[in-house]
Amino acid sequence: MTRLVLFGAPIAIAASILFSRGDSEPPTVVQQAGGPKESTTAAPAAAEQADEQADEIDDLPPGLAAPAMKETASRLVASAEASTLDWRSQYGAIEDVGDGTGYTAGIIGFCSGTNDMLQLVEAYTEKHPDNPLASYLPALRAVDGTDSHEGLDPGFTDAWHLAAKDPAFRKAQDTTRDKLYFEPAVRLAKMDGLGTLGQFIYYDAMVLHGPGIEADGFYGIRDAAMESADTASEGGDETAYLNAFLDASRAAIKNRTMQRDTTRIDTAQRVFLRDGNLELKKPLVWKVYGETFHIT
């Protein structure tokens, strides 16, 4: 996860390594603290358990996966990621924000140094081999795990902007976001007995922290929360557990050396939770970085 400042306001853009998985393949996890790390293959027990219970989980009400709720989730994330509710305006965004993860781009902050951008461009190129980014695949593979621009400059950002005009590339971004962030988070939240708000909190945390198993990754944060409170599926109080999860997420942010703003928790998610809005029903009013947003 990276955070930059544009026009005087901090804008958060994801820079987390994402796991490459099908329904049962183990994720590739990169530690988040301190810049690029070597990747290791790990299969969090929770992810394996969710895969084992996939049929039961998928029979549950859609919750955050319902189209209207997914749109709400995308707008909520965009308010924290880019200070806008227009998440679709971010397909062509690309910048090196100086956080050690190379270029950060697109609707969820795919990064050249953290493997997820590589996965995105590979998937796009497999179906559309003549796209503007295809020639940069060797360079993306070479810089994966680093902050280097070698082989990408000077033309990569222009190529990204051009590709973002292609509906197929925008669809590829949506698909990669869902595969690596949205679907694993929502499935795991349902396994933990969480309603729509809890599913969103998991999704946002997956975006914010990345699905790492270390203390400041999503799975590490979930482990810390479960040490403090039982999940709803374990018979615990849903609100108490979500407060514990937000506490652990907030602590992980505060332990960083940069990008330490916690308003997406303090004046957004915690507000919904305090109001008892466990189903994330509209209208919604929240603040991020002091700016007020509304969804009616």
List keywords for this structure.
single chain; globular; 296 residues; mainly alpha; two-stranded antiparallel sheet; three-stranded antiparallel beta sheet; 46% helix
Summarize the structure.
With 296 residues, the chain is mainly alpha-helical. It is built from eleven helices and nine strands.
Strand order of the biggest β-sheet:
5-6-7
Number of strands: 9
Strand content: 5-15%
Order of helices and strands: EEEEHHHEEEHHHHHHHHEE
Evaluate the radius of gyration.
Answer: 18 Å
Helix content: 40-55%
What does the model show?
This protein is mainly α. The chain is built from 11 helices and 9 strands. Helix 9 crosses helix 10. The longest helix is centred in the middle third of the chain and has 25 residues. The protein is globular.
Fold blueprint:
Layout: E1 2-6, E2 9-13, E3 28-29, E4 40-41, H1 45-52, H2 54-58, H3 67-82, E5 94-96, E6 103-105, E7 110-111, H4 116-127, H5 137-143, H6 156-163, H7 167-191, H8 196-209, H9 218-228, H10 238-254, H11 263-274, E8 284-288, E9 291-295
Antiparallel strand pairs: 1-2, 3-4, 5-6, 6-7, 8-9
Helix pairs in contact: 4-7, 7-8, 8-10, 9-10, 10-11
